[in-house]
Design goal:
By secondary structure, the chain is an all-alpha fold. Among the domains are: about 60 residues, Orthogonal Bundle (434 Repressor (Amino-terminal Domain)), CATH 1.10.260; about 130 residues, Serine Threonine Protein Phosphatase 5, Tetratricopeptide repeat, CATH 1.25.40. Helices cover about 70% and strands about 0% of the residues. The protein has 22 helices and no strands. Helix 7 runs parallel beside helix 9, helix 9 packs antiparallel against helix 10 and helix 16 runs antiparallel to helix 18. The chain is globular, with a radius of gyration of 22 Å.
Length: about 400
């Protein structure tokens, strides 16, 4: 036993609470507990003997539950979630820059936004988080300019990575800023609505996510259904369809999560129809929309419905398709974590472990940084015996010793 593991868990709660600059009342409010409860935990007068409670505290403190349990030290170089404070500070500077603040040239801003998206699609989430404070400062200085697309895309990549890392409130705030920056541009507003839907789903507001994404999808897919030769360029129409189809997929996931499997099926069929009418050559909004994306969503919806055999069967056919390998690493890694849930639901622990190990090979941050994936990995690692490769991965990630 190390000296670190001998520190009482209540003391560790207090240390991390102060590190996050939170009062006992603030922590209590976020946990739905009383200040007295927090005080007793920190003093050791109340035992923390339920993992679900420890996990809830860890989520609020933005650390891994294993850190509270004293099972391993914080990652060398700091936790990626430490960077969220810089993101909050940048967002708080919105509209209050000094007159002497220098705007970033448009070409440089475009390069930085593009680099952030590329890093995100390669699953380099820690790198994106480190870049966000400076990027958000830059776009907030330029958000009143005519280049509305750049602020929208910057806020969207911020929201996307924050949602990945479990920060629902910050993800919602940055998505809302994207909506504001989009103005009257239908495609930009639709792209921002994708981020709104993702943030609301993470926050557990599935019905709001459903309403928001359906409304935005209807605006775009209705416009995109116009015949060729109507004055809308094929490139613009393809972007409308790709964004609108992605919104339909987000809506289907929200519908499945709030117990509306019939509506989820209808939305998936609508998305499949849209996908059959578009070939996305240029994908400036990072949707990766197409027939394969629709089939991926069908697997995830099947998991949400509890249809394990259907989900596994669809998955095993899907990954043989050529289009699967052309998806960004981030997209494939996230999907493989969902596929692991499908196998786990089917009672195939070996298959679930195989999918998580595959996800780590494609996009390591999907497994090593996302709270939901880490929870799934920890669950599989507790199996007797643990699936092949899972014990090693859990130890590498720091969930076991």
């Amino acid at each position: 036993m190390t000296g670190r593991s001998e520190v009482p868990i209540g003391r560790r709660v207090a240390q991390w609470r102060m590190r996050r600059r939170m009062t006992q009342q603030c922590l209590a409010d976020r946990l739905g507990k009383s200040k007295s409860w927090v005080d007793k935990v920190e003093r050791g007068a109340r035992r923390l003997d339920r993992f679900s409670v420890i996990q809830a505290i860890a989520e609020v403190l933005r650390i891994d539950p294993a850190v509270l349990l004293g099972q391993h030290p914080p990652p060398a170089g700091g936790d990626v979630r430490d960077g969220f404070d810089g993101v909050r500070a940048a967002l708080a500077r919105y509209g209050v820059f000094e007159a002497s603040a220098r705007q970033v040239p448009v070409a440089e801003l475009r390069r930085r936004v593009g680099h952030a998206w590329l890093s995100f699609q390669h699953g380099q989430y820690a790198q994106v988080v480190r870049a966000l404070p400076g990027l958000l400062d830059a776009v907030q200085l330029s958000s009143g300019s005519e280049h509305g697309e750049l602020p929208v895309q910057a806020y969207r990549v911020a929201s996307s990575v924050l949602v990945k890392l479990g920060e629902a409130d910050l993800g919602w705030l940055t998505a809302d800023r994207a909506v504001a920056a989009a103005g009257e541009d239908a495609v930009l507003a639709g792209a921002a609505a994708i981020s709104i839907g993702q943030a609301l789903r993470l926050a557990g507001r599935q019905r709001l996510a459903l309403a928001a994404t359906v409304a935005a999808a209807q605006r775009l897919t209705g416009v995109a259904a116009r015949p060729a030769g109507d004055g809308v360029s094929s490139g613009r129409r393809a972007q409308e369809l790709a964004v609108g189809g992605t919104l339909l997929l987000q809506a289907a996931l929200a519908a499945a999560s709030c117990g509306e499997p019939g509506q989820a099926g209808v939305l998936l069929d609508q998305a499949a129809d849209v996908a059959s009418r578009v070939e996305v050559v240029d994908d400036p909004y990072g949707t990766s929309f197409g027939p394969v994306a629709v089939e991926l969503a069908r697997v995830v919806v099947a998991v949400e419905r509890g249809a394990a055999a259907e989900a596994v069967g669809r998955h095993e056919l899907l990954i043989r398709r050529d289009g699967w390998r052309r998806l960004p690493a981030e997209y494939r890694g996230a999907y493989l974590v969902d596929a692991a849930r499908a196998y786990l639901l089917a009672g195939d622990l070996s298959g679930a472990g195989r999918m998580l190990v595959a996800a780590d090979g494609v996009a390591p941050a999907e497994v090593r940084l996302r709270p939901s994936a880490r929870t799934l990995l920890a669950e599989l690692a507790r199996g007797h015996p643990a699936p092949p490769g899972v014990t090693r991965l859990a130890a590498l990630v720091g969930l076991t010793r």
